[in-house]
Amino acid sequence: MALSRVHFLTAFVFAGTIASGCGAGTSTVQAPGAGGIPAPIASVAPGGTATPGGSATSTPAPGHTAAPTAPGSSATPSAAPTAAATATAPFSLSSVKHVFIVMLENESYSASFGGAQTPYLSTTLPSQGALLEDYYSVGHESLDNYIAMISGQAPSYDTQTDCQDYLNFIYIATLVDGQAAGAGCVFPTNVLNITDELSAKGVTWKAYMEDMGNDPARESATCGHPVLNMQDHTQDAEASDQYATRHNPFMYFHTIVDNPICNTNVVNFQHVATDLSSIATTANYNYFTPNLCDDGHDSPCANGDAGGLPQINTFLASFIPTILASPAFKEDGLLIVTFDEAAVSDASSCCGELPGPNSADPGLAGLGGGVIGAVMLSPFIKPGTVSMMPYNHYALLLTTEDIFRVAPLGYSQTSGLNPLGSDVFTNPGG
Question: Is residue 348 over pLDDT 90?
Answer without folding.
Answer: yes
